[in-house]
Design a protein that fits this description.
- The structure is a single chain.
- The chain is an alpha/beta fold.
- The chain contains 19 helices and ten strands.
- It has helices spanning about 10-25, 25-65, 70-120, 120-125, 130-145, 150-170, 175-220, 220-225, 230-285, 290-330, 390-400, 440-445, 455-465, 465-470, 490-500, 520-530, 545-550, 570-575, 575-595, and strands at about 350-360, 370-375, 380-385, 405-410, 415, 430, 510, 540, 555-560, 560-565.
- The strands form two sheets. The chain has a six-stranded mixed β-sheet with strand order 6-7-8-3-9-10, sandwiched between helices. A four-stranded antiparallel β-sheet has the order 2-1-4-5, with helices on one face.
- The longest helix has about 55 residues, at about 230-285.
């Protein structure tokens, strides 16, 4: 809904709708907090009544008539203590339950947000700014649920207002009518303020997302920025965004403080007016002094609750603006569809086939067209082609990180799209060129929470060529690698990522240039080990180095968006000039590198 369409009633309606949604998730915690809040409000109203009774029954008789207070003094003290204890119990129940409700709702919201995003296609993530998604999961969830913490107190305040108005009106109808009119004006002014600041909060939250996105981008690109000497450019860009956020926050808080200055004065003015009217009513014999003390005490107590209701309305507007950004993510429906097939029990290498596969990342420029592939189980296949020919694209399609736009890919005759959720990763292991490691131990980075024993971990690490350097780490397999494995070299990170795939014994192993960061001799040893090991895998390698290509049983030459040739390395050298030229270029490049050339 745009600001031009937004009305004060819409803010209230949508805000209470959001609150009801949160409360339904944890009704008992809200109920306990509400009971505590009502107990607190009831104790306040009772305290006003008690003070009026003490004034009429104890204080005035003693002052006017010199009565002996001993008989009533003990009773008065006990009643006041009982009210104070009830108020304290209400505060404890309200605050504890309200805190639990808020923090649990935030936890549930973040869990739901992550679960939802992980069910979406990779293409959806490619259209998002990661920093903005982080801001949604952090700042927007916090702000969006912020209205919950004071909500039970606001509910009790509402009860206090209604109860106080009823008590005042029951004591004197004219004073009750005056209090009702005055409080209605104050609440209406607060509602107007929340409406005015709502759209300002929308801009603030968007700017928070932009600042988070720029910060995330700057940290990720720190190496490039420093290498090119563009620190000042990036800092200025970030400063512009942060200044825009600062100005937005100043504007929204300035406007609200302006409203609050008026709102804080209105209850005092209302109290003075009603006191003047009350004195007139006492002189006319319609009120006793004790009754007027009760009303005055209630009016004094109502000054803060009326301001607090304004705070709640303001918090509701801020929460609604933030939660709409959360809803934008939750409403994304670009889901990865799944079937019901389960992974095969037992093992054995998988046969792979593709029929008329076509794919484009943007729906416009095709990357692959009419691609056909037939790979026997247990074969080691090298995918070779010039830069931009679609080698990585083919590997991600084979692992079903993306789906082809046209055609089908099958594993043992089963369409990849027919597998149930989380089943295909038991069959297919994919290792990318850029290895991502978590801020955890070596062992946990290999297992990723799966219940493998130490022998399995060490066997996978050995097969990946990682066992030797892992043993040299400070704590071996229990060494904490830091964020993204920054304590390791690129080649070491790749080998741990390879071990992560191998420990799962995939029936199809996809290596997207996954050993490019290691020395050629080390890469050759790793690939030889994979080929000679008793793996239940068909292996597909996106290869650039001639030594890697020669180790493959078969080669496909990918160019012009399709497979131009499929056969052994020697067959393609003789039959496909483009392939022969490309391999020769690889050979020359390898020769220059080994000779120290640049």
């Amino acid at each position: 809904m745009s600001f031009s369409q937004l009305t004060p009633g819409a803010v209230i309606r949508d805000g209470f709708g959001l609150i009801w949604r949160f409360v339904r998730g944890h009704p008992w915690s809200f109920a306990i907090a509400l009971v505590g809040s009502l107990l607190f409000a009831g104790a306040i109203i009772a305290s006003a009544k008690v003070i009026g009774w003490v004034t009429d029954s104890v204080i005035i008789p003693v002052l006017d008539k010199g009565a002996d207070p001993d008989g009533l003094l003990v009773t008065a003290v006990l009643v006041i203590m009982a009210v104070a204890i009830a108020k304290a119990i209400g505060v404890v129940f309200r605050r504890a339950s309200a805190g639990w409700l808020t923090f649990k709702t935030r936890q549930d919201s973040r869990n739901a947000l992550v679960d939802h995003q992980l069910s979406l296609k990779m293409s959806w993530f490619d259209r998002q700014a990661i920093g903005n998604l982080l801001a949604v999961a952090d700042a927007d969830v916090d702000q969006g649920t912020g209205v919950l913490h004071p909500l039970p107190y606001a509910t009790g305040v509402s009860f206090l207002l209604v109860g106080s108005l009823a008590l005042i009106a029951g004591t004197d109808v004219w004073l009750g009518l005056g209090a009702l009119i005055g409080l209605s004006v104050i609440v209406g002014f607060n509602l107007w303020g929340s409406w005015v600041t709502y759209w300002l909060w929308e801009d603030v939250q968007k700017n928070r997302g932009r600042v988070a996105a720029l910060a995330h981008e700057s940290f990720d690109g720190a190496l490039t920025v420093k290498a090119l000497g563009r620190e000042d450019y990036v800092a200025d860009h970030f400063q512009d965004a942060s200044e825009t956020l600062r100005d937005g926050l100043i504007e929204v808080y300035s406007k609200w403080r302006g409203f609050q200055t008026i709102v804080q004065a209105l209850p005092q003015m209302l109290t003075l007016v009603l006191l003047v009217v009350g004195v007139i009513r006492i002189d006319a014999g319609f009120l006793t002094t004790g009754e007027m003390v009760t009303i005055a005490y209630l009016l004094t107590l109502l000054a803060f609750p009326t301001r607090f209701l304004g705070f709640i309305l303001w918090e509701m507007a801020a929460s609604l603006a933030s939660w709409q950004r959360v809803e934008e993510v939750m409403k994304a429906d670009d889901f990865m569809p799944y079937g019901r097939d389960l992974a095969k029990a037992g093992g054995g290498a998988a046969a792979v086939s593709g029929s008329t596969v076509g794919f484009s990342y943007d729906g416009d420029i095709p990357v692959l067209e009419g691609l056909n592939l037939d790979l026997r189980a247990g074969t080691t296949l090298a995918i070779v082609g010039p830069t931009g020919s679609g080698k990585t694209t083919l590997s991600v399609l084979l692992s079903r990180l993306w789906d082809p736009d046209t055609g089908d890919i099958h594993l043992d005759g089963r369409d990849l799209r027919s597998f149930a959720v989380s089943e295909l990763p038991h069959e297919v292991g994919y290792v990318a060129q850029t290895a991502f490691l978590f801020d955890d131990t070596v062992a946990n980075n290999i297992t990723l929470g799966e219940p493998y024993d130490q022998r399995d971990i060490e066997a996978a690490a050995g097969l990946a060529g990682a066992a030797e350097f892992i043993q040299e780490l400070r704590d071996g397999y229990e060494t904490d690698l830091g964020e993204r494995g920054t304590t390791l070299s690129g080649g070491q990170r790749q080998r741990i990522a390879l071990a992560r795939a191998l420990i799962r014994k995939p029936r199809l192993l996809l290596l997207d240039d996954a050993t490019s960061a290691v020395d050629p001799s080390v890469e050759a040893e790793i690939l030889k080990s994979l080929k000679l090991a008793e793996l239940p895998s068909t292996i597909v390698i996106v290869a650039y180095r001639p030594a890697s290509i020669r180790l493959a049983d078969e080669v496909v030459f990918l160019d012009q968006r399709r497979i131009l040739a499929h056969g052994t390395h020697q067959e393609l050298l003789l039959s496909t000039p483009g392939y022969a030229d490309l391999v020769q270029a690889y050979e020359n490049d390898a020769r220059r590198m080994s000779g120290g050339g640049s």
